[in-house]
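Entry 14. Ran structure prediction on the chain below.
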Amino acid sequence: MTARQILVLSGIILLIAVLLSSGCMTGVPGERARVEMTPEELVAFVQDAAYYARETGQATALEEFSKKSGLYSKGDLYIYAYDFDGTLLAHPYEAEQVGGDRSDWTDIRGLPVIRIAEYAASNGGGYSAYLYPRPEGGVIDEDAPDTYIPKIGYSCPAGTDWWIGSGIYITDLAGDEPGEYPPVVDTMISLVESGVEYGRLQGEDEAFREISNRTGMFVDAEGHYLYAYDYNGTLLAHPYLTESIGESLIEREDPFGMKNIRALSETAGSGGGFVVFIWPNPDRDNRLEQKIGYVLPVDGRWWVGSGVYLSEITGVDTSLPALPP
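Output, structure tokens:
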């Protein structure tokens, strides 16, 4: 066996070890194969695939990454590949998209998923968050809005001109109850639900006062807080942006071009749900970071929301290293 073959075999052994130690694959025949992983194990999985690509060459790696039952494709867990111009090179569930420019593809809320993952890869690798549908019956339907749920991704370079990534649904993170959200996300959802109830029972004036109170019931010990807007994007209550209350932020745009307040308002107007967006993190010197938000309507005039920074789930600093060019 050559030294190159030994290196590739070592990488495959590492992959198997990661899958076994991660909590493995669950499911029954005919159903979706579910993989439980920690964020750290997701990083190891992607980095091992990058190692495999460097050792076997791009052509062999792309062929392997395209297989639904290959070394790097196990149900919900799989590798996808892009070049740095946004062209999809390999994906086990999106074969019809391979060769196309996906650089402007957004999730159901308008988050530019590919550009953010590519930016992380171009900076040596990093986490991202986004909404994405689950593969069901060997098919991913990006046109089915009700199937999108939050996902934690990791991307890194596989060569000088291409990169790879993978992701794990937040309901599949190891250490949590299967099918449940991480505790910090559950707590955030409960905060939003309690704000809706309070607003409906106490009326908007009292609700706005309490939401804007930094020592009130809607700011917890970990610094999570509630905010309120109307559907035109006018800020109605916020414990930390009091100087902007009464101002419309509907056109506020992040460095990747997403109008996050518009996305949050439209989501609340359609009944509520998750939105992933970019926002300054005061615990990290106000550096920009992705946030998993959750919003619900209170009535026909206003809505409330809250969010959890990606670093709270991964346990590492996930703020953007610098503004994109």
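The helical segments are 3-21, 39-56, 58-65, 113-122, 183-202, 204-211, 260-269, 310-314. Will compare against last week's run tomorrow.
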